[in-house]
């Protein structure tokens, strides 16, 4: 919630709606966490340098960020092409890789 409150919101309510929609798509369990937010919403410097912070909440966790982006691209390709085969072709990945990623990210088609 702090990230959402601290953000400037130059796009006003429309931008907020898009961020909430994005975060809900990225969340697989219904709970929106910091790592579900788009990268531009997350502050660059984390003032709480607590070493007990989990990797999932770390905005600099490359593996987590790549996973979020990959999931977002797959969801976007599916929405754009309305067809799994065309989405696979647009993403440039094999059928097996595509279905593995659907399973990994909990994307239902």
Write the layout of secondary structure elements.
Elements: H1 2-6, H2 12-26, H3 62-81, H4 84-91, H5 95-105
Helix pairs in contact: 3-4
Which labels suit this protein?
single chain; 109 residues; mainly alpha; Arc Repressor Mutant, subunit A; 2 domains; 5 helices; 54% helix
Task: Outline the structure in words.
- There is one protein chain.
- Helix content is 54%, strand content 0%.
- By secondary structure, the protein is mainly α.
- It has two domains: 1-44, no CATH class; 61-109, Arc Repressor Mutant, subunit A (Orthogonal Bundle), CATH 1.10.10.
- It is globular.
- The two termini are 30 Å apart.
- 9% of the residues are buried.
- Please give the domain count: 2
Helix vs. strand class: mainly alpha
What is the overall shape?
globular
Mean pLDDT: 79
Element order: H for helix, E for strand = HHHHH
- Model regions low in confidence, pLDDT < 50 over at least 5 residues: 45-53
Instruction: Please compute the radius of gyration using only Cα atoms.
Output: 15 Å
Quick one: biggest sheet?
Answer: none
Counting DSSP E segments of at least 2 residues, the number of strands comes to 0
**What is the CATH first-level class name of the largest domain?**
Mainly Alpha
Q: Helix count, per DSSP?
A: 5
The separation of the N and C termini measures 30 Å
Helix coverage percent: 40-55%
Strand content: under 5%
CATH topology of the largest domain: Arc Repressor Mutant, subunit A
Question: If classified by CATH, what would the architecture of the largest domain be?
Answer: Orthogonal Bundle
């Amino acid at each position: 919630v702090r990230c959402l409150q601290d953000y400037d919101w130059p796009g006003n309510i429309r931008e907020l709606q898009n961020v909430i929609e994005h975060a809900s798509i990225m969340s697989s369990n219904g709970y929106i966490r910091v790592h579900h937010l788009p990268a531009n919403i997350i502050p660059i410097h984390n003032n709480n340098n607590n070493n007990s912070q989990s990797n999932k909440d770390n905005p600099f966790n490359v593996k987590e960020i790549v996973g979020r982006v990959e999931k977002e691209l797959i969801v976007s390709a599916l929405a754009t092409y309305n067809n799994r085969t065309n989405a696979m072709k647009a993403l440039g990945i094999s059928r097996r890789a595509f279905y593995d990623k659907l399973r990994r990210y909990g994307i239902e088609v």
